[in-house]
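F.,

This is the one I mentioned.
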């Protein structure tokens, strides 16, 4: 069975609601130009998840959140529960993004709780892994990704694992204009799949592994052509419908 092809847009802390709705509508309007085989996901800020769900209604574009709380509900000021996200009609949630690991103290411990919340509410996590520049230069990128997977993904049941998307995002390539080469991406994606296989066996063949980090229309095709790259998690280029869709044409 061929793995799912996915192009997901992480809008990060960009767009006010009106801009987000406009962007989502433009993606819907141009979607027909891209192969139906590509699964598009847009991940706006919490504030306009609901309006974006509405804007993509009737299309095959899915909506995801960029994070969720570790707890189900209660006295956690400022947090957004997975249940709330699911209730809006979202299908996905990005967890473990390097920006959250780096700036907001996200750890494997908190991520285990967030993953549990996501699954308990029927959301598919897009679990991010990736090394920083120092770790890459020291040749530790394999070990870093392995640990990020072992400490979180290995705690999933087989059923949960069957409903998981992984994104490999080298921190040094995020927002820097510096992309991993297609060969670098393939090398580590294949390695990540091998790590997954050691725990989940043949089910690892079905798990989509996305590349993220300065992915754009001009480099998507070369990266997506690699055997273990199943799509992209797109930051900057997801803020322009035309570029986001053009990345989907990279398949
Ligand atoms: P850029 O595409 O802007 O480098 O961001 C990648 C990313 O972090 C997506 O989650």
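My design for it:
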């Amino acid at each position: 069975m061929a793995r799912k092809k996915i192009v997901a847009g992480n809008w990060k802390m960009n767009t006010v609601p009106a801009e987000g709705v406009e962007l989502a509508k433009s993606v819907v309007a141009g979607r027909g130009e891209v192969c139906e085989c590509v699964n598009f996901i847009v991940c706006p800020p919490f504030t306009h998840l609901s309006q974006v769900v509405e804007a993509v209604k009737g299309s095959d574009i899915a909506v995801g959140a960029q994070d969720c709380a570790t707890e189900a509900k209660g006295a956690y000021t400022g947090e957004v529960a997975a249940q709330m996200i699911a209730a809006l009609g979202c299908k996905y949630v990005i967890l473990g993004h390097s920006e959250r690991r780096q700036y907001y103290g996200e750890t494997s411990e908190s991520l285990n709780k967030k993953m549990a919340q996501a699954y308990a509410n029927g959301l598919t996590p897009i679990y991010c892994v990736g090394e920083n520049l120092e770790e890459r230069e020291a040749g530790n990128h394999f070990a870093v990704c392995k640990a990020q997977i072992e400490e979180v993904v290995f705690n999933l049941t087989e059923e949960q694992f069957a409903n998981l998307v992984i994104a490999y995002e080298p921190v040094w390539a995020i927002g820097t204009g510096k992309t991993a080469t297609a060969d670098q991406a393939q090398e580590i994606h294949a390695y990540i799949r091998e790590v997954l296989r050691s725990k989940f066996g043949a089910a690892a063949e079905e798990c989509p592994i996305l590349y993220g980090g300065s992915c754009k229309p001009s480099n998507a095709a070369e990266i997506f052509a690699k055997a273990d790259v199943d799509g992209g998690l797109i930051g900057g280029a997801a803020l322009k419908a035309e570029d986001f869709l053009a990345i989907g044409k990279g398949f």
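The chain has one domain: 5-248.

Talk soon.
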